[in-house]
TrEMBL record:
<keyword id="KW-0862">Zinc</keyword>
<feature type="signal peptide">
    <location>
        <begin position="1"/>
        <end position="20"/>
    </location>
</feature>
<keyword id="KW-0732">Signal</keyword>
<feature type="binding site">
    <location>
        <position position="585"/>
    </location>
    <ligand>
        <name>Zn(2+)</name>
    </ligand>
</feature>
<dbReference type="InterPro" id="IPR001842">
    <property type="entry name" value="Peptidase_M36"/>
</dbReference>
<dbReference type="GO" id="GO:0005615">
    <property type="term" value="C:extracellular space"/>
</dbReference>
<protein>
    <recommendedName>
        <fullName>Extracellular metalloproteinase</fullName>
        <ecNumber>3.4.24.-</ecNumber>
    </recommendedName>
</protein>
<keyword id="KW-0378">Hydrolase</keyword>
<dbReference type="InterPro" id="IPR050371">
    <property type="entry name" value="Fungal_virulence_M36"/>
</dbReference>
<keyword id="KW-0482">Metalloprotease</keyword>
<keyword id="KW-0964">Secreted</keyword>
<keyword id="KW-0479">Metal-binding</keyword>
<keyword id="KW-0865">Zymogen</keyword>
<dbReference type="InterPro" id="IPR011096">
    <property type="entry name" value="FTP_domain"/>
</dbReference>
<dbReference type="GO" id="GO:0004222">
    <property type="term" value="F:metalloendopeptidase activity"/>
</dbReference>
<dbReference type="Pfam" id="PF02128">
    <property type="entry name" value="Peptidase_M36"/>
</dbReference>
<feature type="binding site">
    <location>
        <position position="555"/>
    </location>
    <ligand>
        <name>Zn(2+)</name>
    </ligand>
</feature>
Length: 789
């Protein structure tokens, strides 16, 4: 019955007319997948088996491997293995080793079977586990029985039904009208597309449904995904009408260059896929589909699909009918509901200096390159020839030779204009600071209305690229010092032999022509460039340039950090949807707000200047006052809070409250930047860190930031490293509390709980009746743990 109802609802939806909201461009973005009912995060070491003997105690990786082997349930003993991922690493400050495993069954990867184990001093501190626990599949993956298609479709239908009902209620005229277009485009439309492409087949050629496709042929599953993914309605029609032509055009070959994880399974590269800008990577894997309290396995093609405005990681059933089980867009939008030479010295830039959020808050001044030798040993305008995408044929270059540039091009960031909104960037325009590296340009936008406003905004491209380059490098250097370094997956062309994958500096597009009134960031796994696209905002005259609003740039770059730190540098699929996707947005808002805050407390909005709205682009300003910002955990149950930006707003607000509790206790540091290292590499404590303590054996203990705002910054970063893949609010909270346990011995335990409890995330906060698609009823807990009362 439900299934029959849905198309009617869909028809009703398309007939609904919603006043077009010219001020916001909504990029189509699919982000969808099941919540695992059996996933756990244990952060109490006393509840975790620790008996692995002294043999392993010295090597955290071996210890973690023994632990991993030990938690495989007996009935899976013969079939299941945990393979240690090579992006595992030891944190230089805390000494915690973050070990990541991927589950394999009969030699085939379980794409969402993630295990992360945190180890220090021979103790398993915590672990998160979403490995498949059901019966072993029979030896031949090809014959694996799959989750009934009809169940999948009725679940999808129910979810659409519920969301559409809420949407219509909102249309009836209430509060979040501004967010409605966005809600329709990003929450409803993807579901609609998924349902249509996976559950209704009336328009598709018969062959599409054929069970005869060779399982080894990923093209049908891929083409069906493209039908759901393309933002162009006419492309959908075109593919449907010329289905066989499109299939035949696609060609694929095995590539041994990209090995699929640690078992060296080959990856297939598929070319000539419509709507993509690079060959699609494909490999077979299992994925888990929720079924009550446990999960079924489904055999899927895992695709990495790079499109103009999206970079998807999708899991699509290998068997026909090909349903999309999960999809993560590595691109995240800023927001949503609403709207070469000798170098004489350091470069200088005429910019809104660090701490000035946007042009309404202050004037520009001449600022020098930051010169942190630890974070950026070569400075901001140099990189090894071997890691320079400009160099052409690398075989002639000595890897040790350094290229110094006089443009906005260096080891951390390539910043440039991208008016054409294209994917290529190397040849794009960049300002040239000359031999003295002085990037000093005018900024004096005139009030020119109409068509010419865009041309006027483009006159300041030099200024804008300079600002984007400066802010992005500052963020690189700041985050580096809190532990987002090479080993943990940061963005650099060259890694100085300090671990991690190279050749992944940030490609930063100023005034990107692919949109207006927004911004976004694409985070592929470690070793591939991140891509930041900033837009012009047509929200005022003169137009406002997102590059000049530090908060928006910081929000975007923070996606890069949270995605690389959660679940390990090589897994970019851990913050794709639901609560975890929401927190991906929330961390960006929280860190942007923390960066602009001063010792005089104030409430802050997000994106207020660019959007030309006093209260910014979120529902509420960030405030410790619960009357001003009433968000609590339970708020997530409200209609309008399914989108990641609304969820993120709640998380950022919780962190803001927690942060201010720590500031009350430890005071406020006027700078978030730790002291520069001495010549010999040691870091002075200054007024920034507490005096360094040592263990009984003389080895140094971790450096601990002294003040509340720097401490929360550190705990949030460390928490990202501890938490499991696809964390919930409760798990991310527990990871922050454990980060404090590790760093300070837990001296802020009760202060942290005070902050979390004020916003409903006390120890007994819970969600009941969690649906596979993220629904459920949340209960706030405003109490403190007994030990803190
Ligand atoms: C680049 O600058 C560094 C100093 O930062 C200098 O040692 C090196 O010789 C320069 N390279 C070239 C090719 O000029
Ligand atoms: C940007 O600066 C360059 C000098 O580096 C100058 O030649 C050019 O005209 C400037 N562009 C604009 C749009 O002002
Ligand atoms: C905080 O407020 C005081 C009093 O208004 C002012 O003197 C001081 O400069 C302010 N500090 C900052 C960092 O804004
Ligand atoms: C919180 O905000 C409300 C509404 O603006 C105000 O009336 C109240 O005094 C504020 N409370 C505190 C503690 O500042």
């Amino acid at each position: 019955m439900k299934l029959l109802l849905v198309p009617l609802l869909l028809a009703g939806l398309s007939a609904t007319s919603v006043a077009a909201h010219d001020s916001v461009r909504s990029r189509k973005s699919l982000g969808f997948g099941p919540v695992h009912p059996h996933a756990v995060f244990h952060s109490d070491p006393s509840g975790i088996p620790q008996n692995f003997g002294s043999f392993h105690a010295k090597n955290p990786f071996q210890l973690a491997q023994s632990f991993a082997d030990g938690i495989i349930p007996p009935h899976l003993d013969d079939a299941s293995t945990f393979v240690l991922r090579k992006d595992s690493y030891t944190d230089r400050n805390t000494g915690v080793t973050h070990v990541y495993f991927r589950q394999f069954l009969n030699g085939l990867e379980v794409a969402d079977g993630d295990l992360n184990v945190n180890v220090k001093d021979g103790i398993i501190l915590s672990y998160g586990n979403s490995a498949y626990q059901g019966d072993a599949p029979d030896g031949n993956p090809v014959r694996t029985s799959t989750h009934p298609h009809s169940d999948y479709c009725s679940q999808l239908a129910n979810e659409f039904d519920a969301r559409n009902t809420h949407y219509k209620r909102q249309l009836g005229g209430q509060t979040i009208i501004d967010g409605l277009d966005f809600y329709r485009d990003t929450i409803l439309r993807p579901l609609e597309h998924m349902f249509e492409s996976s559950c209704t087949f009336t328009d598709l050629p018969d062959r599409f449904l054929s069970k005869d496709h060779k399982l080894e042929d990923p093209r049908h599953a891929l083409l069906q995904f493209m039908i759901a993914a393309t933002p162009e309605e006419h492309m959908v029609q075109d593919i449907l009408s010329k289905y066989d032509d499109y299939i035949n055009e696609m060609s694929s070959y095995m590539d041994t260059h990209f090995v699929g994880g640690e078992t060296h399974l080959p990856v297939e590269l598929i070319s000539n896929v419509p709507e993509t800008v690079n060959p699609v990577k494909a490999r077979l894997a299992y994925i888990q589909v929720p079924d009550g309290d446990s999960t079924h396995l489904d055999l899927v093609w895992k695709f990495e699909v790079e499109m103009k405005d999206n970079w998807y990681e999708a899991a699509v059933s290998a068997h026909a009918p090909h349903k999309i089980i999960s999809v993560v867009d590595w691109a995240s939008d800023a927001y949503a509901p609403i709207p070469r030479k000798e170098r004489p010295g350091l470069a200088t830039y005429n910019v809104f200096k660090w701490g000035i959020n946007d042009p309404s808050e202050g004037d520009r001044s001449i600022e020098a390159e930051y010169n942190d030798k630890l974070a950026s040993p070569l400075g901001w305008h140099s990189l090894p020839v071997a890691n320079d995408p400009y160099s052409g044929d690398k075989s002639f270059a000595y890897s040790s030779s350094i290229r110094n540039t006089t443009v906005t091009w260096g080891n951390n960031v390539f910043a440039h204009e991208n008016w054409d909104g294209r994917n290529s960037y190397i040849g794009n325009y960049r300002p040239d600071g000359g031999e003295s590296l002085e990037f000093d340009y005018v900024y004096d936008p005139k009030l020119i209305p109409g068509e010419d406003a865009l041309e006027e905004a483009r006159k300041y491209i030099n200024t804008t690229i300079t600002q984007l380059f400066y802010t992005t490098n500052m963020v690189h250097d700041l985050y580096y010092r809190y532990g987002f370094d090479e080993a943990s997956g940061n963005f650099q062309q060259h890694n100085f032999g300090r671990g991690g994958e190279e050749n992944d500096g940030v490609i930063a597009n100023a005034q990107d022509g692919s949109g207006f009134n927004n911004a976004n960031f694409m985070t592929p796994p470690d070793g591939q460039n991140g891509r930041c696209r900033m837009y012009i905002w047509k929200t005022a005259t003169p137009y406002r340039d997102g590059d000049l609003e530090a908060g928006i740039v910081i929000h975007e770059l923070t996606h890069g950090m949270s995605t690389r730190l959660t679940g390990g540098p090589a897994n970019s699929g851990c913050l794709g949807w639901g609560e975890s996707g929401g927190m991906g947005e929330g961390w960006g808002d929280f860190l942007a707000t923390t960066i602009r805050s001063t010792s005089n407390y104030s409430d802050y909005s997000m994106g207020a200047w660019a959007a030309n709205r006093e209260n910014g682009i979120r529902n509420y300003v960030y405030s410790t006052n619960i009357t001003v910002n009433p968000s609590t955990y339970k708020t997530l149950d409200k209609p309008g809070y399914w989108g990641v930006h609304a969820i993120g707003e709640v998380w950022a607000e919780v962190l803001w409250v927690v942060s201010n509790k720590l500031i009350e206790k430890h005071g406020f540091s006027d700078t978030l930047f730790p002291p520069l290292a001495e010549e010999d590499g040691t870091i002075p404590a200054g007024d920034f860190y507490r005096p360094r303590e040592h263990e009984a054996d003389g080895s140094p203990k971790p450096l601990i930031p002294k003040h509340g705002n720097t401490l929360i910054f550190q705990l949030v970063v460390n928490g990202m490293k501890l938490q499991p893949c696809r964390p919930s609010f409760l798990e991310a909270r527990d990871a922050i509390i454990q980060a404090d346990e590790i760093l300070t011995g837990g001296e802020n335990r009760c202060t942290l709980w005070e902050g979390f409890s004020v916003r409903g995330l006390g120890p007994d906060a819970r969600v009941d009746g969690r649906t596979p698609w993220g629904g459920g009823i949340r209960t706030d807990d405003f109490e403190l743990p007994e030990a803190c009362q």
